[in-house]
């Protein structure tokens, strides 16, 4: 479990069992599943996933989901997440998914900014990536607004329902993030103290050194 991240309008936190039915509602939305070319999630599968996420240690590897809710109205409205592998601990792959009635309001940008800052400020990451279908213009716009740059395009790399689909990949290096400056969030430490932008970590970092169940790759839903 990690301490919450607070933005102007949102609270990002470790998910728990109380999120189950809201999670299933947006995760199994018919229109979103069709757009993302993903399969629905069963009740038991979702229960096990949220339980595992609720116990995940701050420095653990694998897929980490952060539940997103409004600061003034508790209740899951979506999620952001990052996959960090033990084999390549300086790399992360991010994604997000929001309920249909909370799309188009800037929540993905706000939560994505907070997620990226957490990744670079609390983990020794050198590089973040994100991917989406080439036809997903909204996701690509969001990735660019988050500061990511396109660096790849694959042809017929994703197979679903008897068809192959093209994808694009975006990336952001730690040094590029530092050049962008601080995002609009109050970063909360594990001790519960807020770190103002002027005191956050702003220096180069050198260290030796798939999205699994919940979140659509690189914000393919709910921008």
Concise account of the structure shown:
With 223 residues, this protein is an alpha+beta fold. The chain has six helices and ten strands; from the N terminus they run ββαααβββαβαββαββ. It has one domain (5-199): Gcn5-related N-acetyltransferase (GNAT) (Aminopeptidase, 3-Layer(aba) Sandwich).
Strand order of the largest sheet: 7-8-6-5-4-3-2-1-9-10
Give the helices and strands as they follow along the chain. EEHHHEEEHEHEEHEE
Radius of gyration: 17 Å
Range of strand content: 25-35%
Number of domains: 1
- Give the overall silhouette: globular
Q: What is the mean predicted local confidence, pLDDT?
A: 84
The CATH homology group name: Gcn5-related N-acetyltransferase (GNAT)
Tally of DSSP β-strands: 10
Helical amount: 25-40%
Distance, first to last CA: 26 Å
Structural class: alpha+beta
- How many helices? The count is 6
CATH topology: Aminopeptidase
Quick one: CATH class? Alpha Beta
Biggest sheet features: 10 strands, mixed
Family: Belongs to the acetyltransferase family. RimJ subfamily.
InterPro entries: Acyl_CoA_acyltransferase, GNAT_dom, N-acetyltransferase
Domain N-acetyltransferase: 10-175
GO molecular function, one term: acyltransferase activity, transferring groups other than amino-acyl groups
């Amino acid at each position: 479990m990690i301490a919450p991240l607070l933005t102007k309008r949102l609270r990002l936190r470790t998910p728990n069992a109380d999120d189950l039915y809201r999670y299933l509602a947006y995760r199994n939305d018919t229109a979103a599943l069709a757009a993302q070319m993903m399969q629905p999630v069963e009740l038991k599968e979702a229960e096990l996933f949220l339980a595992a996420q609720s116990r995940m240690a701050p420095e653990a590897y694998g897929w980490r989901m952060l539940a997103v809710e409004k600061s003034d109205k508790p209740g899951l409205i979506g999620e952001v997440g990052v996959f960090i592998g033990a084999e390549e601990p300086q790399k992360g792959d991010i994604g997000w998914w929001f309920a249909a009635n909370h799309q188009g309001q800037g929540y993905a940008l706000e939560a994505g900014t907070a997620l990226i800052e957490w990744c670079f400020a609390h983990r020794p990451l050198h590089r973040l990536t994100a991917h989406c279908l080439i036809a997903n213009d909204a996701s690509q716009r969001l990735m660019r607004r988050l500061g990511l740059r396109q660096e790849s395009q694959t042809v017929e790399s994703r197979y679903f329902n008897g068809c192959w689909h093209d994808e694009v990949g975006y990336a952001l290096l730690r040094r590029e993030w530092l050049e962008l400056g601080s995002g609009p969030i109050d970063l909360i430490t594990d001790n519960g103290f807020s770190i103002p932008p002027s005191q956050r970590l702003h220096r180069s970092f050198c260290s030796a050194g798939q999205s699994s169940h919940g979140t659509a790759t690189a914000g393919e839903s709910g921008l």
